[in-house]
Amino acid sequence: MAVLEREAPTPEPEAPAPAGPTPDQALAELKAGNDAFLRGENNLGYVKVDDLEPLQGGQNPIATIVGCADSRTPPTILFNQGFGRLFSIRVAGNTVDRRGLASIVYAVKHLNCPLVVVMGHTGCGAVAAAEAIVDGVMPLDPSLEEMIVPIIPAVLEARRSDATDMAVRAVELNAQRVADKLRVADASLADALEAGTLKVVAAVKQMHSGEVKFLG
Ligand SMILES: [Zn+2]
């Protein structure tokens, strides 16, 4: 008697789409990307138009970078990340206004971005301008007010510190202050931080070497 074939098992319900990186995994990917860039092993020379094809359905960037508009600080190159990887908001002095905040909330809430990096850089002209205002060596140009004024608290805090390099300290404090403010700027960001699905960190790109140092 033929053995009855067993009925094929009912297929498992389709697994959900693979989850993106955790905040710590995304941070590790950025650090690895910057290391590759510093070693001269970046792969962006191979980025091509075909890379856009799998991204036509949407994007899930691994990090949102709040960076300076400075032409020497492009996040994609410094972190060795191609299309679809970094959601960038760049304003001279890497501060965040209401539109910048809305962009960050969009990335976290709707693109499931697990990491926000506020990245200043040494030799920042916007921070230097804020220092010049604080030191009284330059009048505040009304046209530049929106760029400079948000940086002034970091410069004042640097001046009160015992840092040996006031300019570098102001850059670090500016990045840290912006990160600190972002953590409490919107309920959805605060909720994601609380749930452990988001990290907000500050970093400084070294102008000369291209190294990105993450601040503790
Ligand atoms: Zn700058």
UniProtKB/TrEMBL annotation:
Zn(2+) binds at C68, D70, H121, C124. Residues 1-25 are annotated as: Disordered. This is Carbonic anhydrase. It comes from the Bacteria. Pfam families: Pro_CA. InterPro entries: Carbonic_anhydrase, Carbonic_anhydrase_sf. Transmembrane segments: none annotated. Residues 10-21 have a biased composition (Pro residues). Keywords: Lyase, Metal-binding, Zinc. Its EC number is 4.2.1.1. One of its GO terms (molecular function) is zinc ion binding. Its cofactor is Zn(2+). It comes from Brevundimonas halotolerans. Belongs to the beta-class carbonic anhydrase family.
